Amino acid sequence: MIIQRLTQQDYPAVKRIYEQGLATGNSTFQTSAPEWEEWDSSHLATCRIVGMKDNEVIGWAALTPVSGRCVYAGVAEVSVYVDQSFRGKGFGTTLLEALIRESEKNNVWTLQAGIFPENTSSIRIHEALGFRQIGYREKIGKLNGVWRNTLLLERRSTVIGV
């Protein structure tokens, strides 16, 4: 897999992969994928990557700021999605590793992830790369009318903000 910067031209494939994740019911509280303009404005301009295989986007990862307050400028939330036909082959780990490196190049010192407990593969990937569970949020929100819990995981950089 080749890692490169995510651009607007990649977004149709990114959106398709995101919609695959939405269809699982275990990736996010969102129920539809936004159009490019909304997605672009909600994610950091840096720290957005795609994984390419045979010139096709097979996965993506990006960061969303957790707050507009300047004190939290180095804290961001992680999103990692892999095309359903490439899941379970290590691509999610490769994307998250690359996103961690990119975040540290861009002065992000803390990464966080809110993950449904049922999404065990995502939890394993995050924990293998240094994320630790710092919280359990019971019935934090409804997805399709059903209360869902999330685990809050965090990774503190050992090279930025130390």
If you had to describe this structure to a student in words, what would you say it looks like?
This protein is α+β, with helices and mostly antiparallel strands. It contains four helices and seven strands. The protein has a seven-stranded mixed sheet.
SSE blueprint:
Blueprint: E1 2-5, H1 11-24, H2 36-42, E2 48-53, E3 56-65, E4 75-82, H3 91-105, E5 110-115, H4 120-128, E6 132-143, E7 146-156
Parallel strand pairs: 4-5
Antiparallel strand pairs: 1-2, 2-3, 3-4, 5-7, 6-7
Mean pLDDT over the full residue set: 96
Give me the Rg, rounded. Answer: 15 Å
Shape: globular
The helix/strand order is EHHEEEHEHEE
User: Reading side by side through the largest sheet, how are the strands ordered?
Assistant: 1-2-3-4-5-7-6
Low-confidence stretches: none
Distance between the termini: 31 Å
Q: Helical amount among residues, as a percent range? A: 25-40%
Strand residues, percent:
35-45%
The secondary structure category is alpha+beta
Number of strands: 7
Biggest pleated sheet: 7 strands, mixed
Count of individual helical segments: 4
